[in-house]
Design brief:
Blueprint: E1 4-5, E2 34-39, H1 49-63, E3 67-74, H2 80-89, E4 92-97, H3 110-113, H4 118-131, E5 135-138
Parallel strand pairs: 2-3, 2-5, 3-4
Antiparallel strand pairs: 1-4
């Protein structure tokens, strides 16, 4: 499996349904934020606590007018319906096969080594060139292995 951009193929609307939008103001006075989310697993269906939190965070940010791009590590290709659900909320969805690569710098915690995938580092840089993100959200502590692979000068949370 190779990294895939599924937004167009999944029929993503790019705009949340009107009924899903909050009644309060959308986007900040300076305009919507462009947010890259790097996730250690695909957040839909929200079957565990981390996925529940991430799915609803993405949905809430998009519903408020922010531009969210998701790049997620996967062990197998997600169901097309699940891809379509995330494409409703994300400007772009990229799934990257979890095939661990040697990190460019030593990763001391063995448990984190399986999260460093060259294709994810390359995808994050390519996505940043196209979208010019305002902020990068590294979901879960283990996604910190990409800190040095990301462009400098962009806040990470």
């Amino acid at each position: 499996m190779t990294p895939v951009d599924v937004t167009a193929a999944a029929g993503g609307s790019r705009e949340p349904a009107a009924l899903d939008r909050p009644t309060r103001a959308v986007a900040a006075p300076g305009g919507p934020l462009r947010i890259l989310v790097l996730a250690p697993s695909f957040p839909f269906p929200p079957a565990h606590g981390g996925a529940v939190r991430l799915y609803h965070s993405i949905r809430g940010l998009a519903a408020r007018g922010h531009h969210v791009v998701l790049a997620a590590l996967v062990d197998e290709a997600p169901d097309p319906a699940h891809l379509g659900e995330m494409a409703r909320w994300c400007r772009e969805v990229r799934v990257v096969p979890r095939t661990p690569s040697p990190s460019p710098r030593p990763i001391r915690l063995f448990a984190f080594r399986k999260y460093y995938v060259d294709a994810m580092a390359l995808a994050s840089r390519e996505l940043e060139r196209r979208h010019r993100f305002d902020v990068i959200h590294l979901d879960y502590t283990q996604m910190g292995v990409y800190h040095d692979a990301l462009p400098r000068g962009i806040p990470r949370v």
